[in-house]
Amino acid sequence: MQQLTNRPWFTFYQTNDFFELPEISIYSLLDQSVKKYGDKTAIIFEDKRTTYRDLKYQVDCLAGKWKEMGFEKGDRIGLMLANHPHYIVAYYAAQALGLVVVQVNPMYTTRELLQIVNDSQISSIVGDSIAYQAIKQVENIHSFTYLLGSHLSEEEGKGFIDLETLIGEGIRLDDPEEVNAREDVAVIQYTGGTTGKMKGAMLTHFNLTSNVIQSFQMYGSAMVPGKETVLVATPLYHVYAMTSAMNLGIYIGADLLLFRKFEIENVLENIKTYKPTFFPGVPKMYNAFVNHPKADQYGLDCLKMCSCGSAPLPVEIIKRFEELTGTRIAEGFGLSESSPSTHRNPAYGKKKIGSIGIPVPQTDCIIIDENDNELGPNSVGELLIKGPQIMKGYWNNEAETAKALQNGWLYTGDLATMDDEGYFYIVGRKKEMIIVGGFNIYPQEVEGVLYSHPDIKEAAVVGIPHEEEGEIVKAYVVPKDGRQIDLEELRGYCYTKLTPYKVPKSFEVKETLPRNTVGKLLKRLLIKEELEKR
């Protein structure tokens, strides 16, 4: 706290923003809320309500059954399913046993899943019908837990166990596993880098619970424990929804209005019925709201506060949404490596559109040049972050950990600037990462798939600025001598190798790709050329 009092953003904090953060487990968030709000609704899903007491009963029964089955503290368990109450049950049951949750996009292909399985050595996966095809191809997982709902035949269901059966058979766990909150890893959140290789950010119980409390503090008196309803439409396997929707919602005893997926008509009808008060969304969702012709007829003014994560939100969308609802979107910033929130525009007081806001309480930030010298206001350099939410390191990857964590600072790889009042702005990314719909796409991974195609000699994948999506993925391909590339066939090929959101939206065949004198690919020239066409 002492070092932060001299930071220009310190004056924007409320007086109660600084206290000793508790060293508690993720499971304790649920345990504490059950004691306060036992008979209150915890989850609303497809018009069915689950109370906090019922939720904890299911969590404890599943944890008890898993313990009986031989699960031990530190075992990695994958969660590979779309939003569903059982996601929350499985997540907290794992935390009760001190297991390490590995969150996996259920749309991942077998190839993508194998990268995570082989790196983290997952012993079991909780999956759903979406993930079934990928999971069944993975042979080195010795135990499967399967959430039914896909009408599997007896033959198809071999090797899988019904999650509801486990909950029903389980005897409630008497005592949750003791954890060292600062040291014990609660979640491995996979992310990529400039190389495109997945890395597992190790987030401890202290990292995650601290970020929940930091997020709560940023909302101030706008968020009243026991009185809120959180609109949960962003996937829970995404680190942003995990913290800002699920864990924060559980912490404050909120109703979690949960959606399997974001479908605008269904979401609007539920908003009209259940009147959510908080919404942690992503740009594509806000864009859908402002472009719906009858959005003003669904009572969106019930929302007291919204936040946006995962990708920058165009200024025009912010203005239109705030005019439509009368509420406020608190733009912010975060990374998988920081649990994820590091910055947010304050709920009250000064908001600067286009800024990611100020660091959340008990977080320090600096901007440095290429020689690690700290820069003053209005200078562009790499953003470094220090705080209780910063990861322990990358799973089984000391080399990458040493690059990312130095002297307590997380080197983000993002280029930023800070104004005189301590508000930060992201101006670019050192990494070549592309963000589509709130999800990270790493060009080298997509390029690797393209290079495996028999007709392709060279490939380059870039993010092209797009008014509605923020960015779209475009692939430039050069055919091998004497070959012709069928772009529709190539698109289909990509769908067999990649999750749909990673498949390039646009393809272009070129004779050559721009390179410098030493052969380095100049992707910026491809982007420049694309923008000049408009």
TrEMBL record:
The entry's keywords: Ligase
InterPro entries associated with the record: AMP-bd_C, AMP-bd_C_sf, AMP-binding_CS, AMP-dep_synth/lig_dom, ANL_N_sf, ATP-dep_AMP-bd_enzyme
UniProt keyword Cell membrane present: no
SUPFAM superfamilies: Acetyl-CoA synthetase-like
Listed PROSITE patterns: AMP_BINDING
Similarity annotation: Belongs to the ATP-dependent AMP-binding enzyme family.
Name of protein: Long-chain fatty acid--CoA ligase
Protein species of origin: Peribacillus glennii
